[in-house]
Write a structure and sequence with these properties.
- This is Molybdenum cofactor biosynthesis protein F.
- Pfam families: MoaF, MoaF_C.
- It comes from Colletotrichum karsti.
- By secondary structure, the protein is mainly beta.
- It has two helices and 16 strands.
- The protein has an eight-stranded antiparallel beta barrel.
- The longest helix is centred in the last third of the chain and has 10 residues.
Length: about 280
Amino acid sequence: MAVLSETPDYVPVSDWPTLEDMAAGFGEHLMPASSKLAGEAFNHVFDAGLRILHRFVDGQTIHWEILEGDQHGLTGSAEYKAFEVRENVFFIDFYKPDFQEQVSLVLDTVTGQAVTCVSGFNNKGDERRTWTKFLHAVEDQRGSVKVYQPTDELIGKHILYRYTSRDAYEHIYLNRGTLTWHCLSGTENGLADTEQCKMLKLGENLYLLFWTETIMPVESVIVVDLEKMRSTGRFFCWDPKSQRAVHVRFGSYATKLAETTPSEVLARVRMLGTA
């Protein structure tokens, strides 16, 4: 069991570890991959006017083909990992080397609903950054596309995520678009920041959480299950120190530390005339 060190001080960015060093061993608490999708094929209609076929050849290989829309006829294959984060709900992750894009697909095989998160790189001045776009979809012949909606349900929650026996982080969700993270133990002990994020509700106590980091060009996509108290996901980034792409899949055990409603408290205080 990891032992918390003495309370750290502020850590300047120049002393931050490389992303590869930080992520070493992050797969320790990742749930086992699933081969349940092997042999299945899904024809999805996307809200961006695309129709894409994903065929799971076996437990390791996915074949994709754009049937309609931009880049019609484009096709390719990749190695994938699928994780059944909730019964019949899968987090699927694969890399498209010809495009330098990491694709994370959350797929509900019962409803046919899906959301795809695609991350890649672009240059902003002398800095290389990571971008992520979101595409919502539904399986063909299952009706119109239903977009997973932003949620307020994480706001005010203070959650501890244990990624390894060594690495633990706390998250505080401030509003729909902002979270704060702080490393309590591990390689990044003492590091903290506040980031732009996106929170979508996938189901009861099940959420898609995305955040983009300000200092390091990291884009993270995870599924948070507050019923099973687990998280499963990946980050994809350009490490400016090693000058290379870094992709890590990771999982965690989660513990809810607290839940606050500061806006309600503020409203009550104002009604009492004390602020």
